[in-house]
Amino acid sequence: MTKNDETLRAPSRRGFLKSGIAIGGALAAAPLAARAAAAEGDPAILEKKDWNQYLGDGVDARPYGHPSEFEADVVRRNVAWLTADPVSSVNFTPLHQLDGIITPNGLCFERHHAGIAEVDPAEHRLMINGLVDRELVFTMQDLMRFPRENRVYFLECAANSGMEWRGAQLNGCQFTHGMIHNVMYTGVPLKYLLEEAGLKTNAKWLLPEGADAAGMTRSVPLQKALDDCLVAFKMNGEALRPEQGYPIRLAVPGWEGNMWVKWLRRIEVGDEPWHHREETSKYTDLMANGKARRFTWEMDVKSVITNPSPQAPILHDKGFTVLTGLAWSGRGSITRVDVSLDGGRNWRPARIDGPSFDKSAHRFYYEFDWDGSPLLLQSRAIDSEGIVQPTKDALRAVRGTNSIYHNNGIQTWHVKSGGEVENVEVS
Amino acid sequence: MTKNDETLRAPSRRGFLKSGIAIGGALAAAPLAARAAAAEGDPAILEKKDWNQYLGDGVDARPYGHPSEFEADVVRRNVAWLTADPVSSVNFTPLHQLDGIITPNGLCFERHHAGIAEVDPAEHRLMINGLVDRELVFTMQDLMRFPRENRVYFLECAANSGMEWRGAQLNGCQFTHGMIHNVMYTGVPLKYLLEEAGLKTNAKWLLPEGADAAGMTRSVPLQKALDDCLVAFKMNGEALRPEQGYPIRLAVPGWEGNMWVKWLRRIEVGDEPWHHREETSKYTDLMANGKARRFTWEMDVKSVITNPSPQAPILHDKGFTVLTGLAWSGRGSITRVDVSLDGGRNWRPARIDGPSFDKSAHRFYYEFDWDGSPLLLQSRAIDSEGIVQPTKDALRAVRGTNSIYHNNGIQTWHVKSGGEVENVEVS
């Protein structure tokens, strides 16, 4: 059990009675009333669909499995008007349909600059060149001979929530916050490969490069590479998916997504940053005065309520209600998440449940007795360095509204009395 | 970083030199020699396949993603002669092709007794009846109103390694040990549902029942249910897969797989065990004297080396070699794994890397400098209660060879000088 065990126990039946929340009443009323009637009166409800009247598919039917047909709407979605062409665009993780902290591989959001490169691992190579004692080229088999690590990390696009800088735009957490996924990686610490090549004394920066047609490059300080970067080849146990950089990608924990170069084919070692396209005209933060912040790599402390949310309204009448969401920080772990039902006037601590790792998503819950009146839901995360997620207005006061990157402002959902939910802003 | 950080640092370049293992030499020789030549002489090797000469699929191509075509052999496999019909059979997780501790949903082994029930969650119900104050029927929406937990647990079939009781039979860890998977579950603690129904004072046992044509039932002691059982509805973040009990299954952490009733539709509360088919004629352990052990629910401490293994031979010449495997215990966590290269004569501690959870798989590594001579690989796990994984001979001395269940004996792989690997036994 976690450190939140005591909190968790509270909502049990006796716990509810103790705390004065009418769980018994709430559950016995509303839609749950139907079940008691059904149970006492008519066990035929169990026979309504005769799942148990026929044999299903055998163990030879699905060598590689897929979700139920009843889950056909649980998919990544793109927004056609957002970009000129889907080969240089993004789709979004359906956060409102997931739970826990692991994003299944088939639902991890995609961001490409030239479409999905289809790389044959037998032909793929990783070169390390530049300020090293000896330039090296590794096959996949070579990489398998270095020690490996397993770590769970979030990967968030710097532009996640970017459309929201100028006000509530997109109606659903899939679209406002879905440029994030959270995966267990297996990979070789980059420091081992660099040590194998031997770093020159003036080595200070790296330039990882992708094998796709975009030839994605980003300047990465050497210190970060030696700290915790991985050359990752597995996600959630199996090979990287093609859209996530198969056969290898760079993992740059806690830092913005496009530094996690996919289809990684080369790492150049240099003594200064390269100022390439994707770190000058893009992935810098244009301030109100026309100057741009650069090297804003670290992803700030952030959270979002995934249920209820515009794509996941409350489907029951008033009574006991489960609110849940995700929180994360590029600086470390999440120590606390607060939830407000009234647009930030009053805050109560949420229950964080499940594993807590550095630079990984955390799952939080807040169970409450909904009286059926409208709500303004907000969540506010605090990380292990004590940094508190700001309001959008506080962010705008400092950064203006020119940038599309690094919006970690508090999100507000307006729950109407009928249970529908809308993306709104409150001041 | 984990508690094994110091161990992990050791194999770095300087670490290798210090420890006297010729990592530099080993890597510079053998297949890695090719890379240095290529890097210095001819950068055209990077152009061999022109991944970067064309645009790939866009973000609208794969609403739900799938593995690369180059991973087409990473699949669950069944053994046709093992059972009369694939609707009551098993397939096996390809452990030798995975890493880390998470099993991706598409590769989790399947065991059905009447095929995969295809259940519509909108029509599905969970009934609790028997020795309760009020019998209840829950819809899926009802279940979503109870507090949830997120936990990573292994699920192992009691018959995993069962064919090996009488000697080395199956040539590959997928077949000898692949009736296991390890997943992050999201679910409602069963105790909350039982408390909602109200337990009679004479309640002692539960009978969970599946909605498939087999109507799978197992007797579960109430104490276990109140301790850590979950009614699980998500695995690795998304809905349970159909073959894993969609929309809900019972999670019985650390206990044998067929108690984790899939397509869970009813839980009867009683005062004594039911002695149904799957806990009498099956899932009991027949001893040498003809009597059967029963209620052998807890899965014992166990481990297996997944690489190298018969399906994953060593592909390089002598030199630095990464050995890896999995270890788990139904009693708690794994505190230590030892590895032997000489059939159990000498043991060295392996490096456990990645999260350590109770009743979850642990990933271990052992890096060594292979001199190219034949090896007899073994792994031996020790759990948090101090229980040591036994040899197969030690197990047979106590239990005989009549049973197919609960074989947690030490596995031996014979590595030949060419790198091929065979399943063998040593005494």
TrEMBL record, chains A, B:
Cite the GO molecular-function annotations of the record: heme binding; molybdenum ion binding; molybdopterin cofactor binding; sulfite dehydrogenase activity; sulfite oxidase activity
* Group of enzyme by EC: oxidoreductase
Residues in Oxidoreductase molybdopterin-binding domain copies: 113-274
Q: Which residues form the Moybdenum cofactor oxidoreductase dimerisation domain?
A: 294-411
What InterPro entries would the database entry show? Answer: Ig_E-set, MoCF_OxRdtse_dimer, Mopterin_OxRdtase_euk, OxRdtase_Mopterin-bd_dom, OxRdtase_Mopterin-bd_sf, Sulfite_DH_SoxC, TAT_signal
Q: What is its EC number?
A: 1.8.2.1
The scientific name of the source species is Stappia sediminis
Q: Does the keyword Cell division apply?
A: no
Q: Which cofactor does it need?
A: Mo-molybdopterin
Q: Which NCBIfam families match?
A: sulfite_DH_soxC
Q: What is the lineage of its organism?
A: Bacteria, Pseudomonadati, Pseudomonadota, Alphaproteobacteria, Hyphomicrobiales
Task: Offer one example of a GO biological process linked to this entry.
Answer: sulfur compound metabolic process
Q: What is this protein called?
A: Sulfite dehydrogenase
Q: Give the keywords, sorted.
A: Metal-binding, Molybdenum, Oxidoreductase
